[in-house]
Amino acid sequence: MVMLKGTNVPVPAQAVRVELGWRTTPGAPDVDGSALLLASGKVRNDADFVFYNQPAHASGAVRHEGKAADGDRVTDTLVVDFSRIEPAIDRIVVAASSDGGSFGRVTGLYVRVVDAASGAETARFESTDATVETAFILGELYLRQGAWKFRAVGQGYGSGLEGLATDFGISVDEPQQAKQRPQLQAPPAAPMAAPPAPAPRPAAPPVTQPVRLTKVTLTKEAPSVSLAKQGGTSGALRVNLNWEVRKQFKSWGAKLGRAVAMHADLDLDLCALYELTDGSKGVVQALGNSFGSLGGPPYIHLDGDDRTGARSTGENLTVNLDHKDRLRRLLIFVTIYEGARSFADLHATVTLRPQHGAAIDFSLDECTVPSTVCALALITNNAGDLTVQREARYLVPQRGVSPQRTIDAAYGWGMNWTPGRK
Questions:
Q1: What is the pLDDT of residue 368?
Q2: Is the same domain home to 391 and 290?
Q3: pLDDT digit string (tens) for 338-392?
Q4: Could you tell me if residue 45 is inside a domain?
Q5: Total domains present in the chain
Q6: Which of 65, 115, 277, 371 can bridge 394 by disulfide, Cβ–Cβ 3.0-4.6 Å?
Q7: Are residues 225 and 342 in the same domain?
Q8: What is the average pLDDT value for the chain, to the nearest integer?
Q9: What is the pTM of this model?
Q10: Closest alpha carbon to 312 in 120, 66, 95
């Protein structure tokens, strides 16, 4: 159902996926989705802001799942579980912000609401009149007489995500631009009864620091960053690997020496080689159930083995930065367990998200060899500061040599390997 600006529809589902979509074109900015959980028009504190640097609400009600690409189409998805929304929250604003230009250069921008259980589309709103805006309220989920509804909004801001967020009570740690009020075709006010007084509820989780909107993207031209300079000196460092499944990609024919198209459910494994300051070495990976530990050596833990890719949370590895002085070096890598013989034509993204500090991300869309193992990032301890170096290095194992042995040899880890299984 394509909606007009200002209209609303019921949302009967228990949980929904809110999908922002657009087309990539030369010179167009990137787009990021976000959500603000409001009580009587404002956030209770900064924890009620869900976006790329703060991807999950403490209640579990809203989660930012991240982006997926399919050709020139890109989506950024939020998941909302109505059963977990706290009683004080009566409105969830769904916003989009542009990174590197205005929305007037973004083609095919839309937001749609999909039943998380059945996949049925409940609502769809297409934004077609953007010009100089750098942030948009595309829609909102709101509570009316005990039932949730979705309203198409299409309200633009010229002050970016920072201006939009601060208008709803969020504090940010970057220098704030001059605040601009919402502009450009605000939706007509709909007659409605005054909302009931919020029900008593526990206080929202405390937030010790203002949110940080900064993103760091590692490229070939700028491949490294200091965690300390980004504020990532303690707490948990989350490493997320997301990819697409059920896509056509190239499988390299061993005899023919050429690429052959195939379809498969792709299973990638996120792994880490580590070396501690006491000289001990090892690997954290799903193979052999070597999931690691956060509270003790190696202070690294793999959450689990995800076989679904971009339509879930992907694979996640956590590093305990409270023990960063025990880490000498850490190599984060990924292997293809099944579903393909190469990373060629695979769309995958890597995000390193410190608990305190800016998110660091990069993509894996550059493979041109029949590789089944890729070094993602090398983290080294330099006088107490951890430096993240983008590797994006695709390796081709020799016949009969495992991906783990291949990456060990390339980086000189010097470990003894034995066969393992999941």
A1: 85
A2: yes
A3: 877 888 767 778 888 887 777 888 877 668 899 999 999 999 998 888 999 999 8
A4: yes
A5: 2
A6: 371
A7: yes
A8: 83
A9: 0.59
A10: 66
Predicted confidence (pLDDT) at residue 274 exceeds the cutoff of 70: yes
Same domain, 45 and 99: yes
Average the pLDDT over 110-130 and give the result.
Answer: 95
Which pLDDT belongs to residue 313? 60
The boundaries of the domain holding residue 295 are 216-411
pLDDT at 233: 81
Q: Tokens 């956030």 identify what position? A: 43
Are 42 and 154 contained in the same domain?
yes
